[in-house]
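User: Here's a chain of 275 residues. Predict its fold as tokens.
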Amino acid sequence: MEAARAATDTLATKTFTTDFVQCIKEIHKAHPFSEEQPNLIYTFGPEALNHLQSLHGEFTDQLLEAIKEGKPTPASKHIELIQRVAVALFVLDNTLRTIINNTQITFAKIIPILYIKRAAAYVTHWENQKDIIVKVINDITSSCVDVVKPQPTIRDIQAAILSIAGPVTTFRCFSKSFPRFKITTQEYQNATKDLTTYEMGAIVTIKVRHARPIDIYIKPEAANTTYNKVDELEIPIAPAFLETKLKQPSPPSITKNMKDELVSKDHIARDKFNE
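Assistant: Prediction complete.
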């Protein structure tokens, strides 16, 4: 409380409009968006990165739970918004502090964990406010409209496919992993084919004894290029989670005969199965 009163007393002696205009000018001066003077590059400190990774994990858990339950998936840009807001808060906070304290303005380039936590609280608050408004609207309209169950998007399907353990998967494997995720074979094929158009994996057809030909989707190997494409395509899955799943043993529906056939045809190396 004493700190809050002291801050209030200090602000009372300042001309806020003038200080705020100066703040905007200083920020603009340091970020000119011109080729002659390159912009400042901000990075998150080690603790901030660890906390972001934790938030990624929580988001992925929520996503997979929603997929398994057949519920609407959470907003895919949640983590991206937190990062953007954290940078904005960091720059604004440091600039205002130097102006209020009449010290020389310098822009630190390492963003500490404090601003990630503040941004997460801010973004979560406004997302919750949006959910409240949507719920009120739904309550008002539910009595006069038919309830339509949201259908998964192609990115939701791709996130589920990439989250299956092991380096390969099939439609049967997908259906067993996500029994409540009701999609057709064609929707699954469209999702995997779309991934391959962005060089994220490959589709091969194999024939094992006493069985029909099987289409196998081989996941992309974990690499920075893969991670960038996940973000670029806005597939709602954390890249580190994708890498973890790649290293896990495949589900039982990926049989030994299927693995042997894939290896014998040089579609994949034996050691990729991690078994």
